[in-house]
Amino acid sequence: MAAQISDVSGKSFDYIIIGGGTAGLTVANRLVEDPFKSVLVLEAGEANLDDPKILLGGGFGSIFGDEKYDWAFTTLPQKYANNRRMALPRGKGLGGSSAVNFYVWCKPPAADIDAWEELGNPGWNWEAHQKYALRAEEFSAASEEQLEHYAHMHNAEFRGKNGAIKTTPPGKTLQVSKMLLDTLQKQGVPLLEDPYGGNVTGCWIAASSLDRKNQWNRSYAATAYYIPNKDKPNFTVLTEAFGARVLFDTEKSGDDLVATGVEFVHKGKRYIAHATKEVICSAGALKSPQILELSGIGRRDVLEKIGVPVKVELPGVGENLQDHTMVGISYELDPKVAHETVDLFRNPEQAKEQLRLRDLDQDNAHRIGVSGFSYIPLQISSPNAVQNIIDGVTKHIEEQKKNGKLPPGLAEQYDIQLRMLQDRSLPDIELIAFPAHLTPLTAPEKDKPYLTVLCVIQHPFSRGWVHAKNNDPLDQPDIDGRVFENPYDLEIFLESAKFAKRIAETEPMKSGCIREIDPGASAKTDDELKEYLKNACSTCFHACGSASMLPRDKNGVVDPKLRVYGTKNLRVADLSVAPMEIAAHTQAAAYAIAEQLADILLEKI
C-alpha cells in the first residue's frame, strides 16, 4: 500500500528495501508473493505514477535534469577529459532509472557474465543470468506490418514469455536504423538473427521495454511490480523517504553486525523503521555506496573524513566504479528521403499532432524507439590499429602491476579484459542509430531531421570512485569517473569514432546524409578528433561496480549471496554489485540481479 509516515515510523517489517527503483521493486515483488512476509520499500522520490512524461515514448532524456524525476548527479571535474564536469542522470521516483531510461532492452555476451563467476562468484554465470532475465520479461514479436518494413528476427528460446516487463521491437523501425545496419553489413559487421542468447557481436534491431498492448507506453518497475501489488497488506511503500543509514544491534552475531532497521528522512524529519530479517540496499550504483558509508561501512579514511564511526572497514566501498563512455557523430539527413526522427518533437505543432494521433491509437512518433544497434570488435572496426592497442594497453597494465599501483582485485579484472580485447568474437565498441540530433556542441536547426551515430566504449580500463562528501544523506556524493585515466580507453574510443565517420562514406549512409554536423571539419586529424571526444563525451548512464561482488581480499563489498561483508543480514541489490562492466545497456541486467537475489533470500538457490 502507499503509506503515510504513521504506517512506517517505529513499525517493524520482515524486510526493508532502501530504494524503490528497478531492482528494489523487483525484489519486493518476489518477497510479497508470500503473504506472511512483510516488506517496506523506502523511495526517496515521488510516486510519479500515470505520468505522461514517463509513460510516453519518444521523449528520450527530456526529463533529465528535472529533480522531480532525476537525481541530477554531476561528476567532479574529469582531469583527462579537459576538466569537464559530466551530468549523470539517474531516475528518482518509483521505478528508478527504469522510469527515465531510453527503454532499451538488451543482454550482454555470455563471456561478460561468466567473468563475474571467474572473479570468485559461484552461481553468477551466463546460464543463471539468462534464467533470471527471462523471468522478468514478456516479449511480443514484431507485427506483420513491422516485418514488411524490416526483417525482425528472433529466437523464441532467448525471449521471456511470462514476465512482468513487456518488451517488443519499437512500433516504428526507422529508416535511419535500417540505413545504419545495411551500411555496417557492407563493412563486415554480420546481421544477427537474435542477440539475446549470449552472442551480441554484430548488428540488429533491439527490443524496447514498451507495452504494445497499452498504447506503446513504457513498461517499467512501477507498472510491473508496484501497481499489481500495491493493495497487498504485506507490502508497504513510502515515497519521499531518503534512506539515511542502516542501524545495527549493539550485539554482534559472531563477528558480524546484525542490521535491525533503517533511519530515513521524510519531509525534513528523521524517522526509524525496524527490520526483523533483512535490510536490502537498492539505491543504485551512485547512492548505495553513500548509504553504506553513512552506516559506518567503507574505507576508514573516508569515514573518518565525514565523521562517521567505523563499524566495518571495507576499502572497496565506492571504488571500482565503471561506466560506458559515449559520444555522438551527428549528420543532417537528406530531406528527400522519408526519414522520421524525434527531432519533430521540437516543433510544438508537430508534437501536438503526434499526441492527437496517439490518443486515437493511430500510428505516431511516440512509438519510436532506439532500435538500430551494433556491437563490434576492434578486429572488424580497426584492423590496422587493433594490435598496437592490445600491445600498448598490455604493456601499460604490466607496468602498473610491477609498480604495485593496482588495488586488490583489479589485476584479475584486467587479465580478463585483455583476454576479451584479443578475442575477435567479443565486442569492444558499440554504434547506435539515434534518431535525432544528440551532440552538445551545436544546436539543431528548426524542422531538420538528423541522425546521430552514438559511439560507446564497452569495457573501459579506467576505474573511478563515488564517496559520501559529508554525513548528510540529502547531499550528493562526490563522483569521479576518472574518464580516460587509462589512455588506451581514449585510443579505443578514437577508433570507434573513426569507424563511425568511415561508414558515413559508405552506401546507403553516404546518400542518406547531407553533411556531418559534429565534429565536422574541425576534426580532421586524430589529435583534433581526440579533442572533440574529450569535449563532447558523456557517460552512457550505465554505472556499476561501486559495491563489487568480489572476494573480500580483492576489494569486494558483497559476497555471492550479495551480503555485505562483516554483516549478517545487510544485502545490496543493484548494478553496484556487478564487478565488471558489460557490453549491454544495463536495464535487463538490473532486473536479473534482483531476481537472482530474490531466489537467494527465498532459499531457492
From TrEMBL:
It comes from the Eukaryota. Pfam families: GMC_oxred_C, GMC_oxred_N. InterPro entries: FAD/NAD-bd_sf, GMC_OxRdtase, GMC_OxRdtase_N, GMC_OxRtase_C. One of its GO terms (molecular function) is oxidoreductase activity, acting on CH-OH group of donors. Residues 91-114, 284-298 form the Glucose-methanol-choline oxidoreductase N-terminal domain. The keyword Flavoprotein applies. Keywords: FAD, Flavoprotein, Oxidoreductase, Signal. Its cofactor is FAD. The keyword Hydrolase does not apply. Belongs to the GMC oxidoreductase family. This is GMC oxidoreductase.
